[in-house]
Write a structure and sequence with these properties.
There is one protein chain. Helices cover 39% and strands 17% of the residues. The chain is an alpha/beta fold. The protein folds into 2 domains: 81 residues, Metallocarboxypeptidase-like (Alpha-Beta Plaits, 2-Layer Sandwich), CATH 3.30.70.340; 286 residues, Zn peptidases (Aminopeptidase, 3-Layer(aba) Sandwich). The strands form 3 sheets. An 8-stranded mixed β-sheet has the order 5-6-8-7-11-14-12-13, with helices on both faces. The chain has a 4-stranded antiparallel β-sheet with strand order 2-3-1-4, covered by helices on one side. Strands 9-10 form a two-stranded antiparallel sheet. The longest helix has 21 residues. It is globular and about 65 Å long. 48% of the residues are buried. Bound molecules: N~2~-sulfamoyl-L-arginine and zinc ion.
């Protein structure tokens, strides 16, 4: 009874009083340097036990910098701890609210798809309205699709682009982590390019596959990050001792094995069981329905400029790892041409950290999709989740370059290879690279 009252109170507070837009005046983001395992352990313990500090990037390797946000009342405690353990930190943002205020938010005008300009962020409602209008404008090739439902009763809305029957599928997911705002507009930009670009390669990419594209697979969380707490990551399910499940820890693949928590207050709470969340459960059903024809799965996160390959529990080169590495590296080469943006390509564990229960692992393990990547979009350790809106278009353009290159390689090197025939596919890949070199 007590916990029910607590849950109701939490729900009330989170939807009422707390849903006032939270301000981050004088919040500081630190960039912390570590030198050894001991220092890393101090930060890891802090992350696990003290939720006053928001680890924008977790401490996973002593050689990597960590970005942490602290409130004005807490930042001295953090600095004291760092000094005690001889860690050096520089300030990357000293008044987070100022940077939030620079995240231009525009309204989308209904029936004017051109009014979604690629230099501002848009609310969930506006993204959904834009999707409706896109479908209305391109009725021959675009259909509205519902990928699933959410805890708060919304629909996970997407778009299917198809130029005719008999095509294999590509699935694109964005916005599973609410605060990673660059993800939804990048995915929307891909939709826009597939439908409107006059560039022959883009048109061919659009034509040769059936595309299932979902810009915001965590709509409740995204809405909350717009209207209440900018740095919200999870869905919005209410528990007696916390709110929200990290949907990228809730898939039924090595659930709760690594990099996940059993504490609902944690940002990496994995839920009460695999697929405990309606979002992942319903979306997985949609994916399964098209699964045996799925050739490529892409999920868009931020930040760090990385292209990650499954799995999140081991750095062993499983399935068609070598082939996927080669294709990924070349695609990141294509991405870098426009603006020189550099990505690191590699296995999740090697390049980032151990973390299981993600969408990418589930589609690889259960649907055996040959090409599976997780993009960590711009930037590296500067603005982080607060990527300035001027970078939306460049991010969209360079990312689209890489997606088109992925398609090109899949067609060229016959990566229609299933995940099981790694060796043969890698040979073909190698042959292709050698031929390209000599031609
Ligand atoms: O930790 C995550 O879920 C992703 N990084 S983020 O900073 N955007 O939160 C990485 C996901 C990589 N894939 C898996 N771990 N399965
Ligand atoms: Zn993410």
């Amino acid at each position: 009874m007590k916990s029910l009252i607590y849950a109701l109170l939490l729900a009330y507070l989170s939807n009422g009083v707390l849903s006032e837009k939270f301000r981050y005046d004088n919040y500081t983001v630190f960039r912390i340097h570590m030198e050894n395992e001991e220092q890393m352990k101090v930060l890891k313990d802090l992350q696990d036990t003290d939720f006053r500090f928001d680890f924008w990037t977790p401490p996973e390797h002593p050689s990597k910098l960590v970005q942490v946000m602290a409130g004005p009342e807490d930042k001295d405690d953090l600095q004291k701890l760092l000094t005690e353990h001889n860690m050096i930190a520089e300030i990357s943002m000293n008044n987070v609210q100022e940077f939030i205020d620079k995240q231009t938010i525009k309204r989308y005008t209904r029936n004017e798809i051109g009014s979604m300009t690629w230099n501002a962020y848009y609310s969930l409602e506006d993204i959904y309205a834009w999707l409706d209008d896109v479908v209305a404008q391109y009725p021959d090739v675009a259909t509205k699709v519902i990928g699933g439902q959410t805890y708060e009763g919304r629909e996970i809305v997407g778009i299917k682009i198809s130029h005719g029957p008999g095509k294999k599928n590509i699935f694109i997911e964005g916005g599973i982590h609410a605060r990673e705002w660059i993800s939804p507009p990048t995915v929307c930009f891909i939709i826009h390019e597939l439908l409107t670009s006059p560039v022959p390669e883009n048109m061919a990419a659009a034509r040769d596959f059936d595309w299932h594209i979902f810009p915001v697979v965590n709509p409740d969380g995204y809405k909350f990050s717009f209207e209440s707490q900018r740095f919200w990551r999870k869905n919005r399910r209410v528990f007696s001792n916390g709110i929200g499940v990290d949907l990228n820890r809730n898939w039924n693949s090595n659930w709760l094995v690594h990099g996940a928590s059993t504490n609902p207050s944690s940002d990496i709470y994995a839920g009460t069981g695999p697929f405990s969340e309606i979002e992942t459960r319903s979306l997985s059903r949609y994916m399964r329905a098209i699964g045996d024809q799925m050739q490529m799965f892409l999920t868009f996160h931020s930040y760090g400029q990385m292209l990650l390959l499954p799995f999140g529990n081991t750095s062993e080169p499983l399935a068609n790892y070598n082939e996927a590495m080669n294709i990924g590296r070349r695609a990141m080469g294509a991405l870098s041409v426009r603006y020189g943006t550099e990505y690191v390509t590699g296995n999740i564990v090697e390049v980032l950290y151990e973390a299981t229960g993600g969408t990418d692992e589930w589609v690889k393990e259960h649907l055996h999709v040959p090409i599976v990547y997780c993009y960590e979009l711009r930037d590296q350790l500067q603005y982080g989740f607060l990527l300035p809106p001027e970078q939306i278009l460049p991010t969209g353009l360079e990312t689209m370059d890489s997606v088109v290159d992925l398609i090109h390689q899949m067609k060229r090197f016959g990566t229609m290879a299933s995940a099981g025939v790694a060796g043969k596919a890698s040979m073909m890949m190698l042959l292709g690279i050698v031929m390209e070199y000599f031609l």
